[in-house]
């Protein structure tokens, strides 16, 4: 069943449809990027996958007869036994559930998180195959319906957003006719777009936020939507190194989860805004901008040295603009132009005229 059209005329989406056609053509050729996306540049990075594990990476040994690692070894065995019971009974638990089975023994949640990541990496299986789920913090809204594993029917086309499910693998019967998916960095911006009825005005579309650095489930959902529908996916982040880092996690992955890159990354994602070049183009006053901190400059330098930036010359140019100006801007800086400038002018124009990189 199709969603009732409520948004712009069909001609509005002409450039988006052309972009989707180029993405599909790239997929048929076996790559993750359209022409110009780059080639395989390093053993740890592939443009069609993102950051991933390599066979000769550094490893560490945890021994049962070593005083330094005996406790860690014991905790690994304990969690492995819990995983075995979960798999045998076909039930699931969150990392938080596992921590609270014996919080005094584990000490803190980070210990549990690290061990679960180590087990997943050691066994070379996704965490969900261990029947361990992460607690979701992300939200989703727009033209999407699906059924959760327990049979609950979810309709995201509501005035309020829906929480990203904890078991992405279990959702089924996904239905959408969305023309694009917009990933929004911050919850405050996401809520503002909801208040401005962005999903209705730009219908059909889907909007997702991971509320900052995305949790595993939000990344899994974005990946599932891409694999299922192959619709254009764009990011809306602050024009600062932290926002760029978050965008890179969605697109190329993170070192911490590089062993699961094939299940998490979507290299076809594009940077819609806020671009550093937009700041000058829109005459945003310097008074609304923020000087880069020393940590910001270090983060920016680090991103510029990453292998995937070599095949993103337009990204590099934007980051060089930021580095030269030594200034950053939050998405909220657009409110200087008008309170609804983001939803009424900025995003529609970017989407209609292909203002992404």
UniProtKB/TrEMBL annotation:
PANTHER family: MEIOTIC RECOMBINATION PROTEIN SPO11 (PTHR10848). Residues 71-132 form the Spo11/DNA topoisomerase VI subunit A N-terminal domain. Residues 180-351 form the Topoisomerase 6 subunit A/Spo11 TOPRIM domain. It catalyses: ATP-dependent breakage, passage and rejoining of double-stranded DNA. This is DNA topoisomerase (ATP-hydrolyzing). Pfam families: SPO11_like (PF03533), TOP6A-Spo11_Toprim (PF21180), TP6A_N (PF04406). One of its GO terms (molecular function) is metal ion binding. One of its GO terms (biological process) is meiotic DNA double-strand break formation. Residues 2-42 form the Meiosis-specific protein Spo11 domain. Its cofactor is Mg(2+). Signal peptide: none annotated. It is found in: Nucleus. It is an enzyme of class 5 (isomerase). Its EC number is 5.6.2.2. The active site is at 100 (o-(5'-phospho-dna)-tyrosine intermediate). GO terms for cellular component: nuclear chromosome. InterPro entries: Meiosis_Spo11, Meiotic_Spo11, Spo11/TopoVI_A, Spo11/TopoVI_A_N, Spo11/TopoVI_A_sf, TOPRIM_Topo6A/Spo11, WH-like_DNA-bd_sf.
